[in-house]
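Good morning C.,

I know you're traveling, so I'll keep this short. The sequence:
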Amino acid sequence: MALTPVENQTPAFTAGVSAVAGGFAGLFVGTAQGSGLMGILIGAALMAVIGFICAGITDKEKPVRWALLAAFTVAGFALGGLPTAVLGILFGLFFGWFAFWLATSRYRAHLAPYLTPGQVLWHYTFRVICGAIFVFLITPILVVMPLSFNAQDFFTFTPEMLRFDPEGYSLKHYRDFFGSDQWQSSLRNSLTIAPAATLLSVGFGTLAAIGLSQPHVPFRRAIMAILISPMIVPLIISAAGMYFFYSRIGLQGTYFGVVLAHAALGIPFVIITVTATLVGFDRSLTRAAANMGANPVTTFFKVQMPLILPGVISGGLFAFITSFDEVVVVLFVGSAGQKTLPWQMFTGLREQISPTILAVATILVVISIALLTTVEMLRRRSERLRGMSPS
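The tokens, ready to paste straight into the viewer:
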């Protein structure tokens, strides 16, 4: 049964919601210009007028959107040159689409027709809140990455960078990283500690997850809480405890001590991911293998492991990221011979403000994105294997 199209919204509704969006955007623009309140007032008033006009001419959407794009671009260029013109293009594209999206009621096209206005408002408010949190978390990364190409030894954007002048950009900080013995030694330490810690985390974490998934194991919840406690306890407390314990048994400042400490931090991630994979595991398969004469080791490697492998690899990737990016624990239990890449970055910020840190941070972000993308692909594959996803 086809649904009847929703009528266009009133100009007052479109103008009001557009004013809220304009005020929110004006807050950031006004703050950059020195007056957040003025930015809110101007942004809200401007978008209220645009929303009111767009609501009355919904039949001329395309030319109006092009006109808004041109107006925002020209205004941005007049205010701050080429960089602000790029920002004006983005604003013009978004607000031109947003005003007509409201005016033509396209925002209800994919929603159930019986939803009340309050439910529709919460539907989009929730998404705006999530988007704002995402922007708040991702903005520092978006600032660091272009700064790593700064041709000058500064932690700020130079006038040449703001003008998009090619002379303002350089790969010198990346050359400093790959050509410095100090940075390369830290990288080698990280690449020797993180894989070893990951192997221990995967081995112990997988065995613990399989054991705790058995219904006959007593005190399963208490044991699980203890094993995942490194994720919950503040890292500084764990680091201090490891320091005093390692000092007594002679592991303080040793390679093996750092590996064990990082493995303890990575085990909870492996336990959680493998346990989640075992939720959909058909235990009749292991019983069938036992009836056919397979011993427990053969059953594990031939039956269980292929099915839980995506969860094992995902946990291993999380454990690797945890070890590779960790700095607090290694400061307590490591020595100068185990100075890892994050430790070197911390030292560079504290003792010498080296812009090479920006290049290293960018490399670590790229590696983390690649690993998390792999985790997501493995998660989807695991769902397909368990029949939870149709494709």
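Safe travels,
E.
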